[in-house]
Amino acid sequence: MDEASFPVVGVVIAVVSSFINGSTFVLQKKGILRARKSGGTYLADCVWWCGTLAMIVGQIGNFLAYNVAPAVVVTPLGALGVLFGAVLASWLLQEHLNVIGKLGCALCCCGSVVLIIHSPKSENVTSRAELEERLMDPVFLVYISLVVLSLILLIVWLSPAHGKSNIMVYVCICSLLGTFTVPSSKALGLTAQEAFGETPANDSRALYLFLGLLGILVVSILIQFTYINKALESFSSNMFEAIYYVTFTSCVILASAVLFREWTALGVVDCLGILCGFVTVSVGVALLRISQEAKLSWSQTKVKEN
Hints:
Structural class: mainly alpha
Shape: globular
Low-confidence stretches: 1-5
Strand content: under 5%
Helix content: over 70%
Number of strands: 0
Mean pLDDT: 79
Largest sheet: none
């Protein structure tokens, strides 16, 4: 790829956004710990708000990067945020991963990149009518129904009972919400052209679709934001970020593949690549869980000794 065709600006924006995103969970965790120590609420802590602002800026940066560079180039760079977050957490929060945890974090990042590279590429949807057709596809409707049922089960039953003891509960809630946030973000741009363009459609369906997608996006982000902070209250930021990056990426890839019917274009090589990536991230998550349990066991032993 020559210099003229290489999306330098998009890559630079993506790298900077990855580092900003990598700091969000660490800063929010730091704010939560400061508020807990002072006996107040983290909503009044300036460090927590710095993390929240960093999350907003990072997401804006991602949006810009996707508009000036191919997704296949931008998305793998998100793994840099996980590694930067682990380094920043060891400095600000003294959250040091052991050898098993570091290996698990590296495998999660590598496996996610493999998944992204071999994931099916989006087909172009150029009109509202085509988007509505995709949204009403029976396969997509069944998939969304399963996601909604899973979220209800996780939020209503599993979260109150096991959320504070099992990191995967909060991770799954936040990741499954990505099924709504990312496709909604992609579809908003298309519907906005017809809803607010110079020559709007005669009917108001484009406006209703835009408002519906916007409502889904806002509600999903608010719920996601709530459970991210619940997770940070109970678990280390670097471990949550690594596992969350893996599961969120996987859910978004799956949702896009179902919505845009990308799974029909998968070849044998891509299927094998996805399988290898999934196995790699599964091993990485397992190692992070082992690292967490080993650290918890060591802490309990020290408490008993004292």
